[in-house]
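Fold Annotation — chain and its backbone
Next Lines — sequence and tokenised fold

***
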Amino acid sequence: MTTPLELMRAKLNTETAKADWTELQPFFAKGQLIKVDNSLDLIDVAAHIASDDTDCVRDWMIGGQLVKLDDETALDWEQRKPAIWTVVVAPWILVQERGH
């Protein structure tokens, strides 16, 4: 039996995309980028957020694994141009650097 969380993961998995920092800058300026730590699975986090799993989200935020993208990281990404994976969970865009 497939759970609602598994269905949400499957849906969000098809909606992930690689983005360049230049594409993300306008969303950073609006405060809409949420950085997902590399210790977490981007799709799993997005599914928990979309499913309103406040306990998991709170724990990740308290642990510093899920934070609004800060100026220091934005400047670093501007300079290095790393691979960034994204998934939208409105009104947020979850971002995670890959392959660094």
